[in-house]
Amino acid sequence: MLQREIREVEKEFIEVMVNTGHGQFSFSEKARDRYWEIKGSPWGTMSIWEIDRTDPFMIQVVKELGDAANGTSCRIELELVPKEFEKCYVIEEYDGSEWIEINYKKWKLDQIEDVINNFVLTGDAKEMKIREILRMHEPY
Fold it and tell me: What is residue 49's predicted lDDT score, i.e. its pLDDT?
């Protein structure tokens, strides 16, 4: 992949850490130590649950260490979520195994809110855009 193509993908997607194993989402001691080293803050002051699943430092650690970043019975994978759904996804879980689900209704409502708050569009233009959004099917 060309460097330019990689940058374009990075602009269009966010990386989210999920556990595809059947244990609890967790990091190895090696991953926690590396995270502390990169981030520059002591691990002892943070809970594992305080790390955002999109934390760029931990994503770097997962990429560097691969399987060595996994905690007990955990298998951390990086999933790509289209950037436009950044505020509309949830991590679902069953028996420790996780996956990402997009809440398309929330996405549509966010789109409609953006149209309503657009002070450049006229009332008719807003109505037309809102009707367009409501007719949209799930994009992915």
Answer: 66
CA distance 127 to 116: 9
33 closest CA partner among 68, 67, 72, 78 = 68
Domain ranges of the chain: 3-102, 106-135
| Tokens at 3, concatenated | 């460097």
Taking each helix axis from N to C end, the angle separating 123-135 and 104-116, rounded to the nearest 10 degrees, works out to: 170
Which of 138, 20, 127 lies closest to 73, judged by CA? 20
With beta carbons less than 8 A apart as the criterion, state whether 71 and 25 touch: yes
pTM above 0.85, yes or no: no
